[in-house]
Amino acid sequence: MQLVATSYINRDLSEMIGNTPLFHINRVFNKPHTNIYAKLEWMQMGGSIKSRPAHSIIKAALKSGALNSDKELLDASSGNTAISYAAIGAAMGLKVTICLPENASNERKTILEAHGARLIYTSKFGGTDEAQAIAKELKREDPERYYYADQYNNPNNWKAHYLYTAEEIISQTKGAVTHVVVGLGTTGTAMGLARRLKEFNPNIKLITLQPDIAMHNLEGWKHMETALVPGIYDQSIADANLEIDSDQALMMVKEIALKEGLMVSPSSAANLLGAITVANEIDTGTVVTVFPDNAEKYSEIINSTF
Questions:
Q1: Confidence of residue 32 (pLDDT cuts 50, 70, 90)
Q2: Cβ(132)–Cβ(76) under 8 Å?
Q3: 0.70 cut: is pTM over it?
Q4: How far apart are CA 191 and CA 210, in angstroms?
Q5: Domain with CATH 3.40.50.1100 in the chain
Q6: Which of 112, 126, 141, 194 is deepest in the core (most CB within 10 A)?
């Protein structure tokens, strides 16, 4: 029997996206009647939590006809979403162009190039805000060439977490989750989790996190007071917002490695800092956070920490 290769539009990568394990934090934090769990989001195709929205955005664009093999998927990213676009795009035969701040880690650049993504570097001083502006200008100048995914304003970003990540958390905690603690970048994770989990149980609390200063080391996070606020963000959804010191997050990277056996990214460590703050303020509960990625793409930061 001759096997016929499927076209890019029919390749289903769903089994390779999501379904990540929930890890019990019990040595960095240990308190009777209060538990912290973290979703290990690097354990999926693309290597980070961003594979969920990237896959969701691509599927919706293909279904609507906005994206096809003749167009390039275009977006701005600090790195993880870009890698997810590139990996999924490579698997589906799609062209990917990314506007990327020039100070993205060398590991990110190498991975993106390996997957065949075209990179347009933007100023490190402008961050993802400037990268977004340049992506929009490219789309305006050549609308037939590009499908602009616009992850910061695309509802399929948060819907990926509403439809899947939240359901996994409900299932894995057997409905016992009481608090969810996540950092703010595109804000898709927070928005999607909050909407679904509060439908499941209105008493579940969402606590969002952001850097305490504009010049921080938490790649992908936004200092909302000084950054371009994503269109998908609704600040009324969160029950509380906490500020995180990025230097403390780097110290937590080391503690997680020594006590939990996990090498995580600074943003993952920052999420755990927030989760511990919340867990210390309650008498009983199940606090869930996410570890968006591991330490693989942060060698410069990790080497300076250990």
A1: very high
A2: yes
A3: yes
A4: 14
A5: 8-45+156-305, 51-148
A6: 194
